[in-house]
Amino acid sequence: MVNSILCKFFRKAWLVGMLIGMTTPVLAQDVSVVPRPLKVEQRAGYYVITPKTIISFNGLLVEQAAYLSDVLARSTGYQLAVESYVQKRGIRLIVDERRVAQDEGYQLTVDNSGVEIVGHDVGGVFYGIQTLLQLLPAAVYTHEVQFGMSWKVPFVSISDAPNHPWRGMMLDVARYYYPVAFVKKFIDMMAVYKMNMLQLHLVDDSGWRLEIKKYPRLTEVGAWAGKEPHRLGGYYTQDEMRELISYAAVRNVQIVPEIEFPAHLLSAIVAYPWLSCTGEQHEVQTQHFISQDLLCVGKETSIQFLNDVLDETAGLFPSLYINIGGDEAVYKRWEECPRCQEVMRREHLSKASELQGYLTNVVSDMMKDQGRTIVGWEEIVDRGQLNNPVVAVMWHHVEDTLKATSKGHQAIVAPASHFYLDFPESSTPGEIKAATWMPPISLEKCYSISVNDHSPSSRVLGVQGCLWSDQFIVGTLLQELPQLNENRSEQYVEYLTFPRMMAVAEVGWTKSALRNYTDFSRRSASHYARLDAMGCNYRVPEPRLVNATELGNGRYSISVTPSVDGAEVRYTTDGTYPNAHSPLYTEPVVVDSLSAFRAITVVEPTHFSLPLCPERQ
Asked: 322-337, pLDDT tens digit by residue?
């Protein structure tokens, strides 16, 4: 009976979203939550947050209550009272694992008494808070008081929990150093969309970004590239990293440090040449290439260096996981090194590549003693027999997870074909400079990846989007001018990240049976205003092509619709690119050929999409 009612509702233009469990028509305010919840029931009516609303909580929710109070204060101007025992009215934050069974799950109820968020754990309550914020007007995310707003929340009952325990992003801070403030913003954006694992790529040939007190030259030398006055780089002090870790923890984000080896380690070798097989002195690169110099496996000093670095890293990061990289090693140096060849003979290894498995075992034994699990790119499970279970980040194909799970390891799905966000979204002329070694990854392609649902017996932990910073050291188009105090680099990264991070988040959170790209597009259309309110740049999506009806004689009637709520569509009919002053689309347009029609989404006169080209659809 409920299903037949839902089917009827879906045909109504005023229905909001395709949300499981909705039992009454939506009368006004949209419920457009991303990622899509398990179950939503909406009723007529609203609860309005006023200056007299009280935030109350139980358990260990002091920081989450303060977080919510701070977010609301910035936009509403209300200094809401916060009480450490649960009230009968207002906003109530409760941890109760008896009422919510699944880790990070929550129940959110809005009625006349206020808002009640019950989580299985602190993370579940935090995610209930994120859903609450998505139910409020988009202006709630601003950092300035918004006068004349009604801060109303629709009456709803939402039951929700994540599908996968690992819902991650990787940020490459090694090839380009992002300041602490931007990393915090990146964490905030992950938290909005219920992502919980941030892999920080801290080490690469072009930069070492983490202070290691026992080896100060790693940051004194290895963190910087180029000559004055064009010297670039930077690093995070241990105090700054502790600040980031604490900031992330409040937002239910675990920072996983990646200390890359045996390859991608030139920045350390520049600082300490004795780490390599040859001992040659190099310079930190200013242009992109993958160095063939590896950490020398045959030197006790190199092994001791790893032990010292990872010991400091483990002492700094509370994460249960330590990422050791392990990808793209070229073994020529090991094949030529007498010390490495001696290790091969001693360990009865037949190929130089198996030295990587030996090294991984040495390090995993170190970390096992500290209660940590090793994570690395998929190569770590391909290079010899491993003694301890590891987690492999599979960056080629989804089905490659079997290479890890069949050997008793765990895996994370992060294929370059769908989740590498440094590739452009399109090949439309005018798209920004981005990686080119794989085809573009459209928002729909990113969203439509086939990933099995997680189960208690599953050894595939979840998914991870990856944002590499190679393009900052490919040519000079992306170089900053520090004298201008600009944030072009951050704008560029956000353009590549959004809206695709929302797609990655929903793939990780929402069960496959509930994922539908048309539904996702409808819900995400209202989120661009939220990104604007948060000061987050994004790639404006092209208008959606509704239909192109052939009329005969090569003529077509073309219908489009905005992909961003509240945006305009501007078009041309002569094949040229439209701009913010082109004719406003209001009704279907008849053209002499598909290639004659072009249309753009205009959010602001200076923020608009690339053109929709119907002949490419």
From this structure: 999 999 999 999 999 9
